[in-house]
Amino acid sequence: MGNAARIAVVGSANTDLTTFTDVFPRPGETLFGKSFDLGFGGKGANQAVAARLCGAEVLMVARVGNDLFGEATIRNFASFGIDTTHVRVSEGVSTGVAPIFVEPNGQNRIIVVKGANDRLLPADVDAAAAELRRVDTIILQFEIPLETIYHTVRFARANKIRCIVNPAPAIPAELANLTAADYFIPNETEAQLITGHAVHTPEEAAACAAGLIGKGFQRAVLTLGARGALLASAAGSTHVPAFPVTAVDTSGAGDAFIGSFAVFLAEGLAEKDAVARANLYAAMSTTGVGTQKSFPKRAAFEAQWSRRAAKT
Ligand code: RIB
To answer: From the CA of 98, how far away is ligand 1's center (Å)?
Structure first.
């Protein structure tokens, strides 16, 4: 695998059905949307693609259904050069899908139908154990069964592999089964649901992050959208500002952050620098439509970084 970062994603793959609209229907009402986009998504798949576009060797461990979306998803991974040895096809269930609605300001609302993602079990992780032991970092999200996430966190800890948990979308979980992860990375909504702390101001974000550290996490990164990110540990928290952009679609920005952050860390950057770069990578992703198709290649990112970082 050479000197590139080696990242594994144990996670979800969906087909994204994105509608751009100014208005949302009331019950019983039919309205016209403005435009539509069909794309590859799923938080796990998006994070894998972001890591790959940033230059990592990427292994995907996932489940898709035996349908057109499933076949196309596997081809899509392969087209990026992502290792699909452990992307398995489940019978009798659909590939995950995500109807997404995007408002004129780029804000999104997403409904995920998990389908085959719910068939990704601890046995699938065990089947990939030999390959997983060779990676620097394993990334997890919450679109697969919690038992698989807990099992993979234990696997990563036992094998001294860096582990990043992105609790997205937020669902009730046994936090004690996750605190062995190296990084816990929720967005504002997820952090609020998990801790009960509101996250509207920088002070509230700091209190919320301290709450996560108090629950036993070693490090937390709160992604704050257009306000950047907050990096927290037992030593305190640091706000890392965002890079201003004109957003057209924020879908997948959190995934762009996490996939790129994993690569920057694996390449040896200090945490704060890795967060700053991931902030820019995520911001750039919001300037294009869709999730994976809006993620920049490493060269385009580096060109922006040279321009923008010089001004900070
Ligand atoms: O984070 C964005 C992703 O959430 C979309 O690609 C959609 O599939 C859902 O998983």
So the answer is: 7
Compute CA distances 137 → 21, 59, 182, 194, whole Å. 38, 10, 10, 24
| Cα 67 to middle of ligand 1, angstroms | 19
- Residue boundaries of the structural domains of the chain: 6-22+35-309
**Does 136 participate in catalysis according to the annotation?**
no
With a 6 A CB cut-off, is 225 part of the ligand 1 pocket? no
pTM for the full predicted model: 0.95
Instruction: Report which protein residue has its CA nearest ligand 1's atom 8.
Output: 42
Task: From the CA of 14, give the closest atom in ligand 1.
Answer: 8
Give the DSSP letter string of 285-302.
HTTSSSSGGGPPPHHHHH
For the stretch 145-177, pLDDT in tens is 999 999 999 999 999 999 999 999 999 999 999
- Options 3.40.30.10, 3.40.1190.20, 2.30.42.10, 1.20.1250.20; CATH of 6-22+35-309: 3.40.1190.20
pLDDT over 60 at 183, yes or no: yes
Q: Is 112 a pocket residue for ligand 1 (Cβ < 6 Å)?
A: yes
Task: Please tell me whether residue 202 adopts helix, strand or coil conformation.
Answer: helix
**pLDDT tens, position by position, 88-135:** 999 999 999 999 999 998 888 999 999 999 999 999 999 999 999 999
- Residue having the nearest C-alpha atom to atom 9 of ligand 1: 42
Residue where the block lists tokens 């059905």: 17
Q: Which residues contact 29 (CB under 8 A, 6 or more apart)?
A: none
Relative to the CA of 40, which ligand 1 atom is closest? 6
